[in-house]
Amino acid sequence: MEPSSNAMPATSTKIAATTGAVPESHSVTKRLQNELMQLMMSAPQGVSAFPESDANLLVWAGTIEGPKDTYYEGLTFKISLEFPQNYPYFAPKIKFVSPMWHPNVDMAGNICLDILKEKWSAIYNVQTILLSLQSLLGEPNNSSPLNAQAAQLWDHPEEYKRLLLQRCQED
């Protein structure tokens, strides 16, 4: 009896088993597909994110609306999300694409948020990231600023709002 032509050659099986390439990329894809479905079925108010293309589930674009009763109310910000091949065991890289003025966001859009760095956990997902970023807009960590001027002005509403709106118009 001849071997089936559909069978994977033994050497390919060994390579896949030792490198983990096939199963790992498949599990990342499956996880991101599940997270996308969760967002589409029950997206929280004021946040959204979707893959930029059907061809690459590792790169997403998102939006965050400023929370009510904050300096950011009425404003919407674009973000980029890049997931590593070993997601969810390592955090995605998130940046503000829209110009942002915030104590924990530098002028290039980089974000200082503990759950995206040392406090990352595989239990977090896109939805928890988006909600954490939205929450950060109203509750910055001024003791660890990336934008020292924004941190200093946080308690000066008129000047803070003026500089925020000026920065947002740079788009």
UniProtKB/TrEMBL annotation:
Residues 1-20 are annotated as: Disordered. Its EC number is 2.3.2.23. Gene3D superfamilies: Ubiquitin Conjugating Enzyme (3.10.110.10). Residues 27-171 form the UBC core domain. Keywords: ATP-binding, Nucleotide-binding, Transferase, Ubl conjugation pathway. InterPro entries: Ub_conjugating_enzyme (IPR050113), UBC (IPR000608), UBQ-conjugating_AS (IPR023313), UBQ-conjugating_enzyme/RWD (IPR016135). It comes from the Eukaryota. GO terms for molecular function: ATP binding; ubiquitin conjugating enzyme activity. It comes from Wickerhamiella sorbophila. The active site is at C112 (glycyl thioester intermediate). SMART domains: UBCc. This is E2 ubiquitin-conjugating enzyme. The keyword Nucleotide-binding applies. Belongs to the ubiquitin-conjugating enzyme family.
